[in-house]
Amino acid sequence: MCTLERLLDANLNRFKEGVRVVEDVLRYLCNHSVLAIRLKSIRHSATDILVRSVSDVGALYAHRNSAHDVLQNSDFSYTGEQPLLHMVQANFKRAQESARVLEECLKYAYPAQPPPTFKTLRYELYTLEKECIELLIKSGLELPRVYQSQ
Question: CA–CA separation, 92 vs 97, rounded Å?
């Protein structure tokens, strides 16, 4: 079943999941409230944008079909150095890419609506990515050995 609602639902979830991973790293591992709050605000803004743009948000859930996702069992694991840094970078990229998909889909699917601001969120994520990566490198913070790949 190919529907725009399914695509929007998947990308909103991917966006929010990616941002939440980084948010929790900054909150719990770095104790950096300012960056964690900025990330939380972006995560909540994504939902607000979609709710304002899509007439029936409930339709997104109705079209969710995760049990039959063709890439559900794919695993693109990373086994290199600096697992925490890589995890943060990967989740920023995940959120940025999803923001781009949402931006493009909403622009064409709902042209009469005011332009969605996923572009703004994407650029905020670019800036935050740089700040967070610099903070992690400066702090030298890494995952404990038990969490690193063997």
Answer: 9
Please check the confidence at residue 62 and state whether its pLDDT lies above 80. Answer: no
- List, for residues 66-98, the tens digit of each pLDDT value: 676 666 677 666 566 678 999 999 999 999 999
Taking only the tens place, the pLDDT of each residue in 91-113 is 999 999 999 999 999 888 877 76
**Is 40 within 8 Å of 110 (Cβ atoms)?**
no
Report helix, strand and coil shares of the chain as percent, to nearest 5.
70, 0, 30
Task: Confirm if 42 and 121 have CB atoms less than 8 A apart.
Answer: yes
Sequence-distant (≥ 6) Cβ neighbours of residue 128 within 8 angstroms: 22, 35, 38, 39, 42, 92
**Which residue is it, tokens 């931006």?**
103
What are the distances in angstroms from CA 42 to CA 19, 20, 81, 112? 8, 10, 29, 24
Look at the pTM and tell me if it is higher than 0.85: no
Q: Biggest alpha carbon distance in the chain?
A: 53
Q: Under a CB-based contact definition with an 8 Å cutoff, are residues 141 and 30 in contact? A: yes
